[in-house]
Fold this protein.
Amino acid sequence: MSQLSFQAVRKTFGPTVALEALDLDVGEGQLVSLLGPSGCGKTTALRIAAGFEFATSGKVVVASKDISNVPAHKRNMGMVFQSYSLFPNLTVAQNVDFGLRTRKQDKARRTKTVADMLDLVGLTAQTSRYPHQLSGGQQQRVALARALAVNPQVLLLDEPLSALDAKVRTNLRDQIRRIQTELGITTMFVTHDQEEALAISDKVAVMSNGRVEQYATPLEIYRTPSTAFVARFVGSMNQLPGMVRLDGGVDVAGTTLPTPTELPAGQGVVVLVRPEAVSVAEESSAGFRGTVASLTFQGADTVVGVRLDVLDALVLARSESTKVGQLSIGDRVGVQVDTSHAVVEAAATEPAA
Amino acid sequence: MDAVIDPAPTRRPSTWRSRIGPTLVLIVCGLFFVLPMITMARYSLQNIITPLLRWEDVFKKWSLSGIKAAVSDPGFWPALKLSLELAVATVALTLLLLLPTLLLVHIKVPKARPLIEFTTLLPFMIPPIALVAGVAAFFRPNAKWFLNSNFSLVPFYAILALPFTFRAIDAGIRAIDVRTLIDASRSLGAGWGRTLFRVLMPNLKMAIVSSSFLTFTVVMGEFTIAQTLLKRTYPQFMYEFYSNRGQGATALALFTFLATTAVLGLMFFFVRRRDRRAGTTTTVF
Ligand SMILES: Nc1ncnc2c1ncn2[C@@H]1O[C@H](COP(=O)(O)OP(=O)(O)OP(=O)(O)O)[C@@H](O)[C@H]1O
Ligand SMILES: [Mg+2]
């Protein structure tokens, strides 16, 4: 059963359409990420869920109740913001206590909840500090504790990690996921970082221009992107220009790739394949030929950049480091492409930059 | 003796030549402010008239008789009381109008801010006498009771203080992330009232205090409008008292200045100390 659902939610700001017709169900206890480029409407969707904005049309339903017209302070949502949002005049403990006081809980119960929450985010030593005495990561952990303290029906996080540096980011990201699973709280997480979204989500909604392009598990999003936009936005992609053949495959510079497509024969297309679907082989093997142009060692994997003879295109191949360890720049190699998860897109009239 | 002094390593060794310029400026400025105060004090608190003052008498015959005379005048306490009441009322009116307006402008119509900023400068362009004459001309035939009330001064004073109060509150609002604080508070279940009193006001404390003080100063010093509308305010009392008891009035002026400075200093000291603890950055003025 879904805990939070958007039903044909549309939002316009004057002439700007921020959300076109958002349909999204977040299952109970799930963590769903809204992923998309800047300006695609992620924050707007979250703010509508929180009650800070109201939909132009459509419904927001939480636990089978239509809350479309309920004001923010009467909804039971926990929210963590992108910018630091702790009350500067209150200590860490008082910040976490704020929502409990608003709910007029008795003192003993409040004290216990505050202690529990700060323990959960690992900040028991900082209870009487003021926000300005904390690091950015600590502040966001307090914000998380504060949001969770009121035992919200849904937890909403709007790019809570974007102001933090890389190391703290991954750390806190995993901590958020751990806490979320532990409490089993339904969560909506907004981010424009695809790695972040794939790492912690049960499901990811990839958005563009106010629409959901694909809503699926991280694995499905990565392996079988439903649109070229998703394919490009999530992970990295090789782009091979070609043309649809009469028998249905795609001809890329004389080599036939067996990719099914509904596009008509003769149509110019771009085939999108992930670096891990590309492999480097002996020069004599079937497929493309080219010269090694770059080698990027990434620990277990190495990304080999091969300049193809035929297209003057650089193709990236991700392989286990042990397999390609003896390659060096300038070596002649063969390139094989596994197209089982490739996405075929009609070529734009203008060649893509 | 020398061995005890810990030389500050970061300070560049400065010759007396490099210091003479700034020191001179400081001395001149200091004299500019302090000399009038000293002469005021001498004139009002030392019972020797200036032409008869000799160097050997500099420390003789000092007394508080001047100020005592001023304070015991039957007009003194009512005038002071009225001015204090007016000041409190003006502060209340200003905060009541300005705080919600500026918050709304800030979160809902930020484009209107320049217009509002310009409007608040009008008191600098319109002379108080023109303002009061215009308003009186309208109210005298239409609502005489308004002009008769002592509190008719309050709106005038609120307007006169606007250039200062607007800037103080505006700076305070811009120093905090109002939008996010409001959203955070509301998502935690706080309604508008609680958000205003528990979240916004405490974080705008410094701005509120400084704007209140500026209002206070304007009210305690305004003369033209009070005189035109025949209200017996504190400045008006000082003016009248001065014409027959120059010494007492000067003593009064001196004490008023010292008292406001002391209160101002104390208040800022306390607010700043609490603020520093809470780490809120506040811009004053
Ligand atoms: N209050 C507003 N008034 C007018 N336009 C707005 C408002 N809020 C958002 N928009 C517009 O709606 C669109 C979606 O904005 P939104 O903030 O939801 O994007 P986002 O996906 O969160 O982007 P980012 O990653 O940059 O935060 C944008 O074109 C934005 O300019
Ligand atoms: Mg956003």
In short: The mean pLDDT of chain A is 90.
